[in-house]
Amino acid sequence: MTAVANELDMKGAAAKAASRRMATLSSAVKDQALHAIADALLENQDEILAANGADCNEADANGLGEHMLDRLRITPGRLAGYAADVRAVAALPDPVGEVLESRRMPNGLQIGRRRVPLGVIGTIFESRPNVTVDIASLCLKSGNAVILRGGKEAIRSNTVLTRIVREAAAGAGVPVEAIQFIESTDRALVGEMLKLRDVIDLMVPRGNADLIRRVYAEATMPVVAGGVGVCHTYVDSSADLTMAREIVVNAKCRRYSICNALDTVLIDAAIAPTHLPAIGRALGARGVELRCEPRARDLLEAAGVPCVPAGPDDFGYEFLALIAAVKVVDGLDGALAHITDYGSGHSEAIVTESYTRAQRFLDEVDAAAVFVNASTQFTDGAQFGLGAEVGISTQKMHARGPLGLRELTSYKWVIYGDGQIRPE
Amino acid sequence: MTAVANELDMKGAAAKAASRRMATLSSAVKDQALHAIADALLENQDEILAANGADCNEADANGLGEHMLDRLRITPGRLAGYAADVRAVAALPDPVGEVLESRRMPNGLQIGRRRVPLGVIGTIFESRPNVTVDIASLCLKSGNAVILRGGKEAIRSNTVLTRIVREAAAGAGVPVEAIQFIESTDRALVGEMLKLRDVIDLMVPRGNADLIRRVYAEATMPVVAGGVGVCHTYVDSSADLTMAREIVVNAKCRRYSICNALDTVLIDAAIAPTHLPAIGRALGARGVELRCEPRARDLLEAAGVPCVPAGPDDFGYEFLALIAAVKVVDGLDGALAHITDYGSGHSEAIVTESYTRAQRFLDEVDAAAVFVNASTQFTDGAQFGLGAEVGISTQKMHARGPLGLRELTSYKWVIYGDGQIRPE
Questions:
Q1: pLDDT at A3 over 70
Q2: Region for residue B97 given its phi and psi (left: phi exceeds 0; alpha: psi -120 to 50; beta: otherwise)
Q3: Does B21 touch chain A (CB under 8 A)?
């Protein structure tokens, strides 16, 4: 057995065993542990910043770009944010033990479903060290054990953070084996981890599209991950122009590098001549490049709004940049057909004053989140009232949309009898 | 492209397209279609029985055993049962469109989750032709399209049944393309079907353990299936002897070939001398062979109850036969340790008068269904109040225990705004 497989097997077995004790931990112990973790993060600021500084220096020397360096860096302000996030998880209601339904059957059996943890969550993530603390906190609160595998460039930061998290949790009565951190940065380990079907109940990868594709392709256990978010906003013929402009600009520009950001503007041909130039101008003023199919381009050029022709891959593409594809469509049916063909099932919006078309859009668009008269940037665990999230799922099984504490649970059927047998 | 792949690709694409219309079908149309299917099954009895008779004759000539022949056979009484089952599905509430929760956020957004169909259900099943009608009905009611692939030995029966189901459904306004039956009995087709990740949203195999293992190993899409059900009943020291005996006998003997049947009796050493002989004698009177570890064997032999030594594989084994493994354990901790090591996460029961031990059993046993003082044979969709079921899941993701209409659905987040944008 290789050293890599050995570390993984030992820590996996320890996590599995600890997951049984995690399932019956009281809310009080879990919340005390979370506050202890938050306290310890602040108390150990110097050590954390020193380890992170060493990671950042090495990353800089290795030529990691400024964008990635920024993701890697921990500052006193960010560390305070980590601690606040952990306390926010403590403040959420405990999902474990919730009775989803329970009824008395005619034969006297009381039959119900009770929410239980999934068991062991595996996670593979990249450079942002806050993910270590986030996911450990959410798994702890939801009564799951967790196996964390972070990126090589953050190894010193993650090693210190997980040591602090584990010690603080253990001090509050949480089984220390329930939080496992894989120290080896051997790349072979990802493949080994994805084979652990008997240990890991759910794999939650966090990272770029390549990592997520690899996890989906190789994992032998269930995976929940957000994939690509190609998000459309359709401006209907009855839309209020000011509302449409503000929603489109917000959906694109508030943050353009996140999965719920707008990628394509669709606009009804009936109002494109009056509305599209104003919307295009507002986007342009925020530095957005407009990539247009011919009808949209003709209208924008005639109005003197800068734009470029759309290429063959600009529709159905997640830009993660200050770029938007623009298309004029023939009414709601045209918009629905485009979204069916090009959407990724993440977040889709219509701006309309038409009751009937709003309802049809909500009914007929197949996506994790469908919006009427609001920005797609609201697709987010906190905005949806779930508190923190481990990601956003674009699949339909188990959980769709933001993944909060509840989505890290399963249920068991609990049956109270007084001697019932089933008639033969 | 092979002919097999061609049939599959065409029918898959048709099902996918039809699934969008299925998602918005009214409950009235779906229920009318179900009643039309029930009527048509009865009206076409002669044709169905003739096709099934031909299947049975060929199966008999090919030496199919009596057990399998019985599963294959359709009688007028059984056909009436099929029709009644379809009407029972019609009588269940429509899961689609149910709002799971919806709340007004501080910014005025109304955010909720609405239940939606999964899309396209794939199913691979073996000789019982009632599965064709059952699964088609459940998929129709839950707004899903379905691709059915039955066994070779029932091909004539299934061909006639699906033609009748499709015609009746179409007559009531259901898109006929939403119910697809694969006519090719080429074995290569199973492998091709398991590759259709882009078409099939959920695969539900029904059949023996080999089929289910193959589907889990090869499927590229999510799978929900019951696996092995190794079910324990633990007789605690405080158990009422009569209740314990009746529950154990019922859990084993009511039907021994189903996954919720008892496989292992565990009994506390404290009461084994007084209780085990009576329980063993009652099982023996029903023809059950007792395979015992040494402590249990000593007690039974001393009481003159016939039994045999347990072999190394008798614990953790699903017998599907009139056989039970028997073990004396040291209290609840011994029982919990045994179930953790040998259980399959299906159905587990305790017989006890102890409040504390009942609660510990419910809390600590990790299974789809945990029972106090009742027979594990109650694990069943109808018994749990779900109506019909497509199977029983022993996995934790998405759905656990009986899979009814609700478990064939996902949800979408639906957000009603009046111009909200997210603060920058």
A1: no
A2: left
A3: no
